[in-house]
Design brief:
Strand content: over 45%
Radius of gyration: 16 Å
Number of domains: 1
Structural class: mainly beta
Largest sheet: 5 strands, antiparallel
CATH class: Mainly Beta
Number of helices: 1
Distance between the termini: 9 Å
Length: about 140
Amino acid sequence: MPVLCDFIQIVGDAPVTIGDSLPVWEANFDTGGRKSGSDIFSTALLIFNVRGLTHTNLDVNVKINNVVVGKIYRYGGLNEAERNDTANYWYTQMIAMTGSQLKDGVNEIQIEAVGFPGATPTNKFDDFQLKNVVCFFHQSA
């Protein structure tokens, strides 16, 4: 039996900054025709580039339809020079989830900013950027 795959680009090459100026980022995306079920043939993938996230001691929850499906992992354990250097580069991260966590239609992704040690009332969050956010999902044949 053939297995089909489709994808949708949620964010392109123009980065979204999540942090003090945007503490919660949300976007809708459509996975119409997705294969239902929770078997290995209905696995879905979120793939994205992340930059920053070097000062926090927390990982970032990624929610799809108000359910945590995975995390964006911080780049911790760095000294100040390494932290500043690492913050300049894009890194690819990926989250695998069951296709049943997606709706056959419009879905919502939600990502919240996280604090960091030494935060102040005017600088509460470790600002980071996302780009090239893509969801791959299996399609019904």
